[in-house]
Design brief:
This protein has 121 residues and is mainly alpha-helical. Helix content is 49%, strand content 0%. It contains seven helices and no strands. α3 packs across α7 and α6 crosses α7. The N terminus is likely disordered.
Length: 121
């Protein structure tokens, strides 16, 4: 019982990328040509929890603890690209790490796609 409490508490902590990730430059920043491919990746792998529009309201969201991030929010949109890339790469329960599943380019494409969601919110 104590371990569950500690784990639940740790999940409530803010998810902060290491300082080395904060300054990592997005090599495809602003490239909108990657958005169709990124959208497919997002819909297949991210939207079950984050929703098609990225608001954290996907069909599996209610079962997630912590709740999925709202990718359209000012909080997420204000994070550096490197931070988002690191989070996509490393994951945090219940979100899987995508470092092995997606290429580096695909993960940067997802960062660009997340950026595009702000314009649709």
């Amino acid at each position: 019982m104590f371990l569950l409490t500690v784990k639940g508490f740790s999940q409530a902590k803010p998810w902060v990328a290491p300082s080395s990730a904060l300054t990592k430059e997005n090599p495809i920043k602003g490239n909108t040509q990657v958005l169709p491919d990124a959208k497919k990746l997002y819909q297949t792998n991210c939207s079950p929890c984050h929703g098609n529009g990225g608001k954290g309201d996907g069909p599996a969201a209610s079962a997630c603890n912590p709740k999925p991030a709202d990718h359209t929010s000012a909080k997420i949109q204000s994070e550096p690209d490197g931070s988002l890339f690191w989070k996509i790469s490393e994951g945090r329960n219940p979100m899987p790490a995508f470092k092995q599943a997606f290429s580096e380019t695909q993960r940067w494409q997802l960062v660009n796609f997340i950026r595009s969601l702000a314009k649709k919110s």
